[in-house]
Amino acid sequence: MPFDVRRLDIYRKVPKDLTQPTYTGAFISICCCLFMLFLFLSELTGFIATEIVNELYVDDSDKDSGGKIDVSLNISLPNLNCDLVGLDIQDEMGRHEVGHIDNSMKVPLNNGYGCRFEGKFSINKVPGNFHVSTHSATAQPQNPDMTHTIHKLSFGENLQDVQGAFNALGGASRLESNPLASHDYILKIVPTVYEDMRGRQRFSYQYTVANKEYVAYSHTGRIIPAIWFRYDLSPITVKYTERRQPLYRFITTICAIIGGTFTVAGIIDSCIFTASEAWKKIQLGKMS
User: Fold this and answer.
1) pLDDT at 140
2) Do 187 and 232 meet the contact criterion of CB atoms below 8 Å apart?
3) Fewer CB within 10 Å of terminal CB in the chain, N or C?
4) Count of CA atoms in the C-beta half-sphere (13 A) of 248
5) Would you tell me how many other CB atoms lie within 10 Å of the CB of residue 208?
6) By C-alpha distance, which of 118, 125, 127 is closest to 100?
7) pLDDT for 107-129, tens place per residue?
């Protein structure tokens, strides 16, 4: 007798004349299909969307930068003339630059009484500071007013896709402070790497900040205020990575949704049908 391959069929078919449709079964089937459609669309949205995960490790994330960090500074001093405003940079490697002017711009404010300083420069990856002051002016003013508003202070590349402290001082205002006071902003810079789906990396830096305000006197007894940004680098690197759910996991989830929903719906329908049949028998027993 030849072997019938149909014997391997685990999905045996039941003739339609042996099945019985019910209103309850139809209602459960409609709800089941709608529920599966909702779960499918939810999983499809999650599969298409990218997920950003982060990790921490100890490393020099940007070895190709030559030990430099790009800085972008935008600050307004509404009561200090642009001729008096200057940027000074110094660090523990011996750099001491007074009146840095490369890639910088000064925009007069308040009919020339104030100044908006915008500058892009680089700093070494060692502890140091840069400060806005009147130190580079040819003649020091009698009462320099260092009240200010910081519009932007960022390090490295601009990462718009990630929420973080990339511009922690943005919007900081000291317009109500003592005009003759110096301001110290102590920054802890954290290297940050962003890797997209294609493996391309962008390097930026987040930072935490603490600040203090005080009146500083020079050796001649004069008050020479400044806005200091003292920085140090953290050895910890934060890495953000774009990831997408793998296809096999998406298929597995869809199969689980369809199979699980059908199974649960079948159990519910079977229980309701069995209870209904039992109730009919009880009713018939009472009538007889």
Assistant:
1) 81
2) yes
3) N
4) 0
5) 12
6) 118
7) 999 998 999 999 999 999 999 99
Count CB atoms within 10 A of the CB of residue 278. 10
DSSP states of 75-142? EEETTS-TTT-EEEEEETTS-EESS--TTEEEEEEGGGTEEEEEEEEEEESSSEEEEEESTTSSS--S
Given a contact cutoff of 8 angstroms between Cβ atoms, the answer to whether 80 and 129 are in contact is no
Look at residues 157, 193, 199, 200 and name the one whose alpha carbon lies nearest to residue 59: 193
What is d(CA 217, CA 222) in angstroms, rounded to the nearest whole number? 5
CA–CA gap between residue 39 and residue 194 (Å, rounded): 31
- Of the candidates 201, 287, 276, 268, which has an alpha carbon nearest to the alpha carbon of residue 35? 268
The two three-digit tokens of residue 113, written as one number: 């009484």
Q: Which two tokens stand for residue 152?
A: 């932007």
Query: What span, in angstroms and rounded, lies between the C-alpha atoms of 174 and 189?
Result: 22
Which pLDDT belongs to residue 65? 59
pLDDT tens for each residue of 142-198: 888 899 999 999 999 988 777 888 999 999 999 999 989 999 999 999 999 988 888
Specify whether the CB–CB gap between 187 and 207 falls below 8 A.
Answer: yes
Whole-angstrom distance, CA of residue 20 vs CA of residue 113: 90
Q: How far apart are CA 192 and CA 70, in angstroms?
A: 13
pLDDT band at 11 (very low <50, low <70, confident <90, very high): low
Q: What angle (nearest 5°) sits at the alpha carbon of residue 96, between those of residues 186 and 102?
A: 90
Residues 245, 246, 247, 248, CA torsion sign: negative
